[in-house]
Each structure stands twice: as structure tokens, then as C-alpha cells.
Amino acid sequence: MILGTLRIFPPPSRRRDVLELLRSVQGPVAAEPGCVAIRIYEEEGEEPAIVLVEQWESRTALESHLGSDAYRLILGAIDLSSVPPEIRFDSVTESEGMELIERIRTSGHTTDGDSRRSEGDAGPTATRPPGTTVPKGKRTP
Fold it and tell me: What are the sequence ranges of the domains in the chain?
């Protein structure tokens, strides 16, 4: 899967124009072969941006899209950015959802590099007395 992310930074006077342009192509792009999803977001903050996120089944589908009339309109929206836009195309080789959260939370593993917690550590909800240790590979009741 290919994930395309485009962040456009239009001046306040052109924000509505960019949104209208992107919304006008949202339906046609969604109907293109290989399009998994297309979403438009508005970011607020110091650098308010309009974000277009596209998901494509394959590189071939993305390349076809990049040559389409709809993408020519997206390029028009890019031209309205007051600073260079951020454009990324990421190849996704694996995708997981709630099952990953459940697997990690029920196994007690962390992936954040926290070496203070071992596989046998029951974590902050354990009822062990302070200073008690559990041999590696053992679980507390």
C-alpha cells in the first residue's frame, strides 16, 4: 500500500479556495482504480495547513493517479501554498489495528525501549510489595 500525504499552507485569503478545489476532486479520485481512501483535514495552530491523505493499493495505481486530470487540479491547490508544501509518499508493508493494541497490552511487552520493565514485570498495576523482584520469564499471580 502507498500512503500519500500532502500538507498545503495557503494564506488565510486562499484557504477556502484550496478546500473547495480538493473537495471537488475527492469523489473522482475515490472512484479511480486502486484508490483505497482519500481524506481532507484542516490543521490549526502556528502553521495552519490543509492536509490531503490518499491511500493506494499499489505503486502502479498511484502513478496512474499522478498522471490524471484530477491530480492536475491537486497541483493547482499546491500552487496556492504560501510556503513550499510538504509532500510524502510512503510504502506501507504492514498494517495493524486494534489487534496490535490488544496483543501488546495483554502480553505486557513494551516497544518504547523501556528497559526498566522486563517481560516478567507485571507493570504499574502489580500488587507486589515494593522491592520485590520476579525472576525473568516468571509471571506474578
Answer: 2-91
